[in-house]
Amino acid sequence: MIGYGDRARTQCEVVRLFRETHPDLPPLNQGTISKIEPQYREMGHVRKVPSKRQAVVDDDTKLNLLLALEENPITPARPTGQCGGKSNKFDTTEGFKS
After folding, report:
1. Region Disordered: what ranges (predicted)?
2. Could you give the angle at which helices 30-43 and 11-21 cross, rounded to 10 degrees?
3. Cβ atoms within 10 A of the Cβ of 16, count?
4. What distance in Å separates the CA atoms of residue 98 and residue 96, rounded to the nearest whole number?
5. What is the mean pLDDT of residues 21-28?
6. How far apart (Å, rounded) are the C-alpha atoms in residues 24 and 13?
7. Half-sphere exposure at residue 80, Cβ-oriented, CA atoms within 13 angstroms
8. How many domains does the chain divide into?
9. Angle, alpha carbons 34-37-39 (nearest 5°)
10. Is pLDDT of 24 > 90?
11. Residue 46 and residue 36 in contact, taking contact as beta carbons nearer than 8 Å
């Protein structure tokens, strides 16, 4: 609907055209167009893109991790007493010891 080159439309024209083309959908406003237009110009679509901070893990990998954890539960990385002085000792059954 935005168009390219000489046939590019303003954001107001895009809003009007969308409302005329899709009267059954909730109306867009110019703020919505200004948010999605840069993504459309950069990527060529406005589909939701997965966040770069979160890794995409498929269901098979999740299941394999769960099965591996059930077979070999995670043990503490350090045995009791390696974290520092006496006040830092932690026993999973009794809590912190002094």
Report:
1. 74-98
2. 100
3. 13
4. 7
5. 88
6. 18
7. 12
8. 1
9. 125
10. yes
11. yes
3-state SS assignment for residue 92: coil
Tens digits of per-residue pLDDT, 32-68?
A: 888 888 887 787 777 777 667 767 788 998 898 888 8
Q: Which of 1-10, 14-23, 55-64, 83-92 is the least confident region?
A: 83-92
Distance separating alpha carbons of residues 29 and 18, to the nearest angstrom: 10
Look at residue 37 and tell me if it is in a domain: yes
Tell me if 53 is assigned to some domain.
no
Does some domain include residue 24?
yes
CA-to-CA distance for 22 and 98, rounded, in angstroms?
A: 70
Q: Residue 46 has which token pair?
A: 């406005």
